[in-house]
Amino acid sequence: MPVSRVAFITGASSGLGAGLARRVARSGYAVALAARRLDRLDEVARAVRDAGGTALPLSCDVREPDQVRAAVEAAVGALGPVDLLVANAGVSGMTRPEGFSARNVEDVMWTNFLGPVYAVEAVLPSMLQRGSGHLVAMGSLAGYGGLPKSGAYSASKGALHNFFESLRLDLRGSGVDVTVVTPGYVKTALTAKNDHRMPFLMELDDAVERIARGIERRDALVAFPLPLFSLVWLAQLFPAAIYDRIGSRVGREKRD
User: In the chain, where are the structural domains located?
Assistant: First the structure.
């Protein structure tokens, strides 16, 4: 039977996606959980149900538009129209000049940028028809500028920011809101692989709570932590020579 509010969350099998699934379920959403790892999704779904919520795990590769469309249709059929999309699925990875591979860049762009675009395509028509809805994109502070050894990741998040910002402008007055989330370093499986310094590293639960509050307020931008966001934003104003000098120091810390 359809419920009052439905959230569709990609990349919900771990990290921020799993944390947000549990958090928005406590706020009254039935959550459709989409990811490739169905066994991990089942664990998240059990946690949501044990807390009294409603969860539907759905196997879905966000790089495949047909799978995204089918997952949204399954969510709508079981729970009702999607009110909240959280496009969270993402990958990282190093981009190095040595052995440079355009295919590696394509893979990152496919997941981090086109995956959210496919999800928007699947949920937006219904939102516009109903005159209500909320699109949330999980960006990154890395999207504000090119970072060393992170060309593909930075580019994918920059594209994501610009795309959803354009959507926000185009959807003004439609009843559909758009939020871009740009977190810094958060303790997840992805950041656990890093062997370089991660300033202002945040606990997962703290990051989830900040994002959830921004979603509830329907903020246009949720950016944190403030000191790192301020530095990244100001870095866009630096002369190229200064930016390159700082970036080179960061790049020397990164190893495969």
Answer: 6-253
Q: Which residue in this structure is represented by tokens 């909240």? A: 84
Q: 50-91, pLDDT tens digit by residue?
A: 999 999 999 999 999 999 999 999 999 999 999 999 999 999
Cβ–Cβ < 8 Å for 189, 15: yes
Tokens read off for 92: 């990282």
The overall pTM is greater than 0.90: no
What does pLDDT average to over the chain? 88
- Residue 56's closest CA among 46, 67, 64, 70? 46
Reference 138, options 148, 153, 149, 123; nearest CA is 153
Q: How far apart are CA 17 and CA 111, in angstroms?
A: 15
> How far is the C-alpha of 101 from the C-alpha of 243, rounded, in Å?
25
CA nearest to 178, candidates 139, 224, 229, 233: 139
Please state, in angstroms and rounded to a whole number, the distance separating the CA atoms of residues 118 and 109. Answer: 12
Laid out side by side, the sheet with 6-10 consists of 55-59, 30-35, 6-10, 84-87, 133-138, 176-183, 221-224
Question: Under CATH, what is the fold of the domain 6-253?
Answer: Rossmann fold (3.40.50)
| Annotated catalytic residue, options 118, 144, 153, 185 | 153
- Is 243 marked active-site? no
The token duo for 174 is 């439609």
Decide if 64 contacts 72 (C-beta within 8 A): no
Which residue carries 């699109």 as its tokens?
A: 135
Over 60: is that where the pLDDT of 107 sits?
Answer: yes
pLDDT tens-digit profile of 217-235? Answer: 999 999 987 766 666 666 6
